[in-house]
Amino acid sequence: MTERYLVYDIGTTGTKSTLVEDGQILRSHITTYPTHQGANGVMEQNVEDWIQAVRESTTKMGILANLDGIILTGQMQNVILLDANGHALRSVILYSDTRAHNEATEINELLTSDTLQQITGNQQDAGSLLAKMRWLAKHEPDTLNKTQHLVFGAADAIIAQLCGRFISDSTTASTTGLIDIHSRQIIDTSFLAKVGLENYTALMPEIIVGGSQVGTVTEAASAEWGLPVAIPIYLAPGDAGSATIGAGSGDVGAAYAYIGTSGWVAFTATSPANPQRGVITLAHPRNDHFIQVAPLMTAGGNLDWILSLFDDENYGTLISSALDEKPSKLLYLPYLNGERSPFSDPFARGTFVGLTGQTSKQVMTRAVLEGVIYAYRHVLDILLPEGVSSLMVTGGGTRSTEWCQLFSDIIGLPIHISADAENVGIRGALQAVAVQRQQQTSYSIEDLPISQTLQPQPTFKTLYDNKYQIFRQLHITLQDTFSKLGQLEAT
Predict the structure, then answer these.
(1) Which phi and psi angles does 369 have, rounded to 5°?
(2) Structurally, what CATH architecture does the domain formed by 249-424+448-491 represent?
(3) Whole-model pTM?
(4) Is 4-236 a CATH 1.20.120.530 domain?
């Protein structure tokens, strides 16, 4: 029997809507929206921009007949404050927002970092919703007092509009510091009381397993959004969870790397990660499994920045021109918005080391391309110190075979480029729904397609290895400087 789904991925730079029939993509459309950046680490987006993007991309899909369901996934670790009708009361505080660094320090002192790690599975820093909610309680108490619902992911905000439920999936919720990683429910009120957040327990969403049906399209939403009424709605795991499944790592086994605006290296395990190694633990949709993730705050976003800086026409031209140059001594730290792994530092920033009066645009761009890969190599070494024999790569960064070849050369591993790499999250979301509907018994995807395998070229291996060792020391050397500069911004 033919099955047809409309899948929404509400990402960091835009919303992708994809019409899928029996696992095959019929058509898709992406609508972008801005991120609003401010001093002291402020990073925000607007729910209304997400809603408009979903509506526009839905319109581009054409006639949506015979749908079996609507599936949503998207960015995680957001503070989304809604009124009783699901309308946003303020801009969304994104996962990459680091303004709450002082509150993070206070929380780790009040609850002790060891206790927090035992309960939440992770270190809690400025990206934590514990810290961000404490910041809001200090600086915007009136907004919190008006809030009726808090949800954690972009998909959750859209679901509130489509069917009136206020929920988050366990994978998304596990990024926040607000749930017990083992019970997968909101942490005890007594812990929230110790950091002054006990009054906001009633705002918390219901936590469900990613892939579950959460409702149907209401008549009001149908009229407003142009979607068929009463169509089942499913909330898939948040983007990292869906991508893990779609990349072929949904069951215990191989690691993969995601190269998007942000990035990560991840794999599925039967135990939580050691947070002291800078690795984050996410709740897997399967209760007794976990996703170990070494996240990069800014990956491909570094290319967005340098493309805008030099006003180049496109990424392909920018990358090709840069890689026509031989590697230089120039090093680049890709921490434009701080970093989460293999260390947590909200003050870390992008840095060039080794500029000269002869440094060209191409040499700087090549250093950026290399620097992002050194960061991936660093987190891979932390996540899997015993090493791996190869690495699957997914995400928008795989559009450039040249850059993927550089990944292989610098990391020193064969790189498998996932076929249809930009849609692994869609593939994973569909698989999660199939498991919850008991159409599949496993989160493993059989016969995962690979479009290309790249072997490491040894020409510059010694130079890359030496630069990598210097790269690993640079943050340690500059950490105090980053902190002092960050404090200057905050005053």
Answers:
(1) -60, -45
(2) 2-Layer Sandwich (3.30)
(3) 0.85
(4) no
